[in-house]
UniProtKB/TrEMBL annotation, chains A, B:
Pfam entry (one): MarR
Origin organism lineage: Bacteria, Pseudomonadati, Pseudomonadota, Betaproteobacteria, Neisseriales
Keywords for this protein: DNA-binding, Transcription, Transcription regulation
Protein's name according to its UniProt entry: MarR family transcriptional regulator
Keyword DNA-binding in annotation: yes
Species of origin: Aquitalea palustris
Coiled-coil ranges (or none): none
Domain HTH marR-type intervals: 9-141
GO molecular function: DNA binding; DNA-binding transcription factor activity
Segment forming the signal sequence: none
Superkingdom of the organism of origin: Bacteria
UniProt cross-references to Gene3D superfamilies, sorted A to Z: Winged helix-like DNA-binding domain superfamily/Winged helix DNA-binding domain
DNA sequence: TCAGTATAGTTCAAACTAGAACTAGTTTGC
DNA sequence: GCAAACTAGTTCTAGTTTGAACTATACTGA
């Protein structure tokens, strides 16, 4: 997680890791009470209010890699929450969508979780959060840029 | 990861998850080239320049839970990088420390990784990063506070 | 002193994770 | 028109993750 010690510029990383972990703990604590795992919740939340989408699209939105997604979806199908359905136009692709039961689950579980997490955000000023967003976005851009650069250097 | 959609105040979460993931990808890309996993690197980095520490302490510093740590340390012992050694004063506790070979690995791998990650931070202003740190810390405090509160409510 | 309680680590089951190799289908360029 | 390159998903392996149950040891208070 932290991958670093106390070098000056890198205390950001420590803070980032610890903050993300604190979010995950709070979020997962609630999600587990609703009999889902965090990745399962992510998939249900992402499919809610949509006609369904391909694994690729789902993978991009949830940040779950395609290999992992196969297993997560398998387990959601066992629970009767989502379904897979072949595509006409591109036969490699699979459409994943909520079942009626999954739709009901989404309606029950998604607003409840938003409300739950909101109790944390209510402790903070909206302006501060906007500022945080902007700065996180800068940092993310730097990581992505360097990753691309380093990947090219390898060849 | 994201666990949320586009509710106004919660875009922070999206940004937090994506930024953290970008960091992990960049960091792991380098760590894998050095034949370590991110948790293994974390343990080596945390033990470097110390006389060793208990699993509990190691767990707190690395954010790796104790159950996971057992396995990570098992694999590092197989690699000959760390050692476990029983304690006199508290026989429940185990001291984990780098071996000579682990010390050498640390010297080689840790500065290299700091330098690697620094190429990303060099793209940013130090003042911006300090500001980011402060705001992350606020957010983390809010998550932790609500988690404690919610845990109490359960009983 | 000794029962109750707390703590340090390990073990376990179920799930997730990444990347790499693979299969099957699609697109491109010559 | 067809080989080469690309893309979508699945499968695989090794490792990590969590919480919970368990073992062994240490502490605490009547």
């Amino acid at each position: 997680m932290s991958h670093v010690k106390k070098e000056p510029s890198l205390s950001v990383i420590r803070e980032l890791a610890r903050t993300f972990q604190a979010f995950e703990q709070l979020s997962a604590f609630h999600i587990r009470q609703m009999d889902l795992t965090p990745p399962q919740f992510d998939v249900v939340a992402t499919l809610g209010n949509t006609p369904g989408m391909s694994c690729k699209e789902l993978s991009e939105k949830t940040l779950i890699t395609k290999g992992t997604l196969t297993g997560v979806i398998d387990r959601l199908i066992e629970k009767g929450v989502v379904s897979r359905c072949a595509q006409e136009q591109d036969r490699r692709s699979v459409m994943v969508a909520l079942t009626a039961q999954g739709e009901a689950l989404f309606q029950q579980v998604f607003p409840a979780h938003i409300a739950y997490m909101k109790t944390a955000f209510d402790l903070l000023e909206p302006a501060d959060m906007e500022e945080l967003c902007r700065r996180l976005s800068q940092l993310r851009a730097a990581f992505n840029q360097v990753l691309e650069q380093k990947k090219h250097e390898i060849e």
